[in-house]
Write a structure and sequence with these properties.
single chain, CIP2A N-terminal domain-containing protein, ARM-type_fold, 79% helix, CIP2A_N, extended, 894 residues, ARM-like, coiled coil
Length: 894
Amino acid sequence: MDMATSLKSLLLAVQQYRDGRTAQNAAQLQKQVEEVSGLKCDQLLSSGQVLPRECVGGLVELAGNPNTSQTLTSSIISLLAKLACDDDSREILNSSYNLTSTLASVIHCHSATAGEPLVLQCLQVLQKLTYNTRVFQSTNYIHELIAFLMTNIQSQNEDIIMPCLGLMANLCRDNHSVQSHIKSLDNVKRFYRTLINFLAHNSLTVVIFTLSILASLTLNEKVGEKLFDAKNIHQTFQLVFNIIVNGNGTQTRKYSVDLLVDLLKNPKIADHLTKYQHFSACVSQVLGLLQSKDPDSAGKVLELLLAMCSVSGLRSLLCEVVFRPAAPKLRAASRRQGAGLDGERKTESGLALVQWLSSPVDGAESCSLQALQLLNELLEEALGAESVSECVLSFIEMLIPVLLGLLRGLNPPQGDAHIRKHCHRITHVSSLLLNILNLIEPMSAQLCLSQVESLLTCCHSNSPLICHPPGSDNDLSQVCAEALLTTLDLMSKLRQQVKDMETSFYRMLQDQRIVTPLSLALTSQHRERVQTGLSLLFEATPLPDFPSLVLGESMAANNAYRQREAELSVKRVAVQEVPPFSILDCSSGSSRSVHSLVDKIQNGLELQEQVKDSHVSEIIDVYEQKLSAFASKESRLQDLLDAKALALSQADRLIAQYRFQRAQAEAEACKLGCLLKEAERRREDLQGELSSQVLEVERSKADMEELLQHNARLQQDSEEHQALKGAYNSLLNRFNESERLMKELQTAHISLTKQNDTVRKNHEALQLQHEKMASVLEEREEEIRSLRSDLQQKNSDITGLRGELCAEEEKVKEKDQERRELEETVDVLRKELNKTEQARKDASIKASSLELQKSQLETKLKQKEDELNKHSSMIAMIHSLSSGKLKSDVNLSL
């Protein structure tokens, strides 16, 4: 039975069991679930078909119902786990069907019996679903799930501890909301102690899970600083590298790589890794894992290496490890077509990366893209150094044909998934070729032209109804546009180096189909795409046939579409804020809920009983916006159909041209057959002439050998003559140099003698000035002594006069009659007293000025003495230098 028939039977069984939960319906559903589980379910959900999604929606609803039997729930969960085989399917199960909260509710219902197989099965499926997926704290039953995990991690049940640790590691990684919730719990310290005890566990998987949880919760706290300090971090590095290299199973290796990637996000730990003495050896062993054919292991190794490239101190070390070992064998490998990557060369790190670029292993597309990104980072670092080593150049010499082979070997894309892989591959290959631009020699303009043509075809064959909005990174048109612009940028850089590249580049810029990818790049949210689009627009604007008006209209349409999507998203948020009611309480907005809602809106009866008119108007506005969006998409689809009709007519013309060219080719083939027969006859005639020419060539070879021997003797004589000539020139240069030095020393000696004479004269003049200043100083001291004696005399006179004045005043009091007679005498005495006071003040002023002059003269005298000492030392130094120079001159002359 094929998959479609099985899914229809499964959907019918789900509906029957939902309508009547009888034992017969349950057995029938159980049988259908097991039958579908036995079929191949790879990428069933990501294919976009409606029937699988309807079945999954019904199965998730039944699994979350507590009334469903455990046996049936276990079978359903097994089928859902099998469907979650790739990243896209896991994303659909999480986002569209909310499977995480459903499984958490099943665990919550059976939390009292944690050891049941159903609980363990739910934990294992949850660990698979939540790997590299962020679970929001608002998810239903997430708090109960975290409490269940913490309780069972601290239990003694070994069977449940490992899946609980793995699931807790997934929930805590890069999830700040879950981390904050766990840290706010009361028993978090006890939980930390339990985790630290697990570090001594026998199972390496348990140790890695524990380290991952501790790194997520405590890396920036005191507990984490103690756990991952400078003393312990090197042991942690050794443990993680050992588990990556020698770990049992892919799961342990995946979590070990994730742990090391998380630790590298901490600057201190990244700095410790740059100083880790065994880093090169560990990375070499990790690169050895690329020899295996397991894409999962290779993908995690490449992810780890890309994370190391984000640390500036590790990029150069990685370049040494990747390029240095392969250096001796790269040139030999580059000269071979297929055998160059065989045998012992497979053990080299660089060649292992090249193998994953075009690996035939299933599921290796992501590994190929990661290898391209890693080589891009490493070659950017290696070529950005001051000097590029020979091994790097040899590696690039081998890599260029492989990259060009990737561009030539890409098959025409079929379907959206193939188009996306095709465009991602072209983008990364073109980016890598841009980094090694100066070393690209065999690149052809026809190769780039064919890639641009295929990408333009992909862009215009992309249906707008199956695409994401233009602002989305996953938009197929965005991916095609990025690949196309990268290829055009490569053509722009190579247009001066490759023949016919400039003509092809400007012809593509004038193609009408370039408008769509260029408008998407110019209206993109990514800076690099906008810059690339602007550079191409700058080149295309002066061209006569460039559709600038169409480009403006396309950019305006993109902006209007983005604005309309923003308005619709705002209205969707407004509708989501409406309180829930029974009509809108269906899971993931399935088609059945939409049809029932439309019927109830048309009837207008049940809706009016349960919600207000405002809610109805908001819902009607949302559906009006959706209808308008579908109308615009329908108009775009009509335009696409018109374009397809035009393309069909062009294809008919091309078929007619092809038939005509085929007839011409057949006629030319007949002519070429006749020419081939004539060439065979001429070849037989020329064969005889060739034998005679061979004899002449042998004689000329003998003559040539004699001439070569004579030429070798002449060459040897010429080399001896050149050596003697070089020795003579070196001796002549040495003689000229010594003569020039002698002249320079003589001129220096003459100048020094002149300076000595001038210094001696200055010294004598300074001595005379010193003697004069000493005599002047003695005279000033004598004057100061005389002034002091006069001042003392005046003071004694003043004291005597004051005594007489007191006596006279007493006489005035006693004799009033004699006062009148003595007033004149008193006035005279007062005048004389004022004169003496004035004289005393003048004398004191002169004495202070003389003392000031004395201090100034003393300081000047000290300065002159210091200068004299300096000059005397300079004279002594000049004498010593002049005597030394004279001795050296004498030696030179000798």
